[in-house]
């Protein structure tokens, strides 16, 4: 038995993901589809394999050269794609006088290929097409004798409807066994579709046999949705087995969780009493470091350091799927908004600050900047482009429609950027340390959404935590907590408390600018109006920063923020959250 694997297609249904990786090399449970098919053919007793190639053929050749198979596997490059029929004809010199298998490279199945081959040997027809019941693709009509009557609506003769007699409609799996004489029906040196060849053969009185195996699974991986669906089905049970020692294969129920600003999709997977969280970052769009790569690498690093982050049990950076510990539904925002007293709130924040210091110092030790997908460090250039310009472009111009340019405030922005890095306690920087990215489970605190992490000032994460508009801490409480952190870190990092606090003040400004830029972008561009509710709180905290003594050094920005607040004041009071009202009464 010899086999042809059809692997020349452009994979247009999977674009743009196929721009960098040919479809046959898309992995399922860590193994490329092509490798899975080759191994299945090996197990079925195949003696030799040929693979037609075209799109990114060098990558397929490189992969095959890196593997060791027990049988010969070679490729045949098509400078111009010949189609399924043309590929079969083009490999005519490869075939001997025995039937051969042809199989598509974009299917995932457990169909027994040896059983298929033996079935074909049991009849005298020139071709066997393996079919399955897959409603989306059920366009092959099969008669009472299990021979194919036609494809789609193009039949040689008028046919009865599928509800008469024993006529069935099934889907072609992309697996077929052919006798060598079929080559006579395929034109040479031209594009040809094998289905068109079979139509011609049927019209000439030839019989094409159908084989519908029992108890099998099959899926076409030609679209992003089908590919991701298959990877989940294959990897989720493995993730549960890794996470739970006593886990036995059971049905896994998947429910979508509500996300925030990210384009990632989150799911809770439940099987019996066990549950996991699955993050779907989408299929890899580029070969450089992606958000999924950073989430995985940084998450594994922090967990290995004993830091409070969810454990990652299984990951697949190509599909973008990550299976991790389920920390429940209680986030720090909910905990604080449900608190009954000021003292309770302060105690919770001090607990988070203690862990934040550990996250920065311990997480920064051994941190590899190659894990980062944005920038390796928090720098002046990043501050100017991703926070200051983001504020002017996404918030002032994009959201408020104000005729304001970055250039008019650039000099003041440069001073702020410089001061935000002076006296920094440099370590691992989470970059989005706000209350919705902190989970509380059984009294324990955990940090999530760390994929944007890099090296940078602890003061920035502290600012993210304390000026968080989702909670809206009063300035007096923020000052108390800043002093607490400054005293805690001074002996550990050898920095004076005053210098620590000075860096914090400027980090508060840069973080605030980033928050408003993000809220403007997410509200206006992404249509996530939820974030508009928190713009007034973010504006108020930014105004407080410029009312401090340092504000006199930034007259243009101070005037701008004052004018914005005049328009937003009444709106802000009307939308003051519970925590703000709680502190007003204390």
List key phrases describing it.
Spore Coat Polysaccharide Biosynthesis Protein SpsA, Chain A, 586 residues, 23 strands, Phosphorylase Kinase, domain 1, Aminoglycoside 3'-phosphotransferase, Chain: A, domain 2, disordered C terminus
Task: Write structural notes for this entry.
There is one protein chain. With 586 residues, the chain is α+β, with helices and mostly antiparallel strands. The chain is built from 17 helices and 23 strands. The protein folds into 3 domains: 2-219, Spore Coat Polysaccharide Biosynthesis Protein SpsA, Chain A (Alpha-Beta Complex), CATH 3.90.550.10; 224-325, Phosphorylase Kinase, domain 1, CATH 3.30.200; 332-584, Aminoglycoside 3'-phosphotransferase, Chain: A, domain 2. Helix content is 40%, strand content 18%. Strands 1, 4, 5, 6, 8, 9, 10, 11, 12 and 13 form a 10-stranded mixed β-sheet that branches. It has a 5-stranded antiparallel β-sheet with strand order 15-16-17-19-18, sandwiched between helices. Strands 2-3 form a two-stranded antiparallel ribbon. Strand 21 (438-441) and strand 22 form a beta hairpin. The chain is elongated and about 95 Å long.
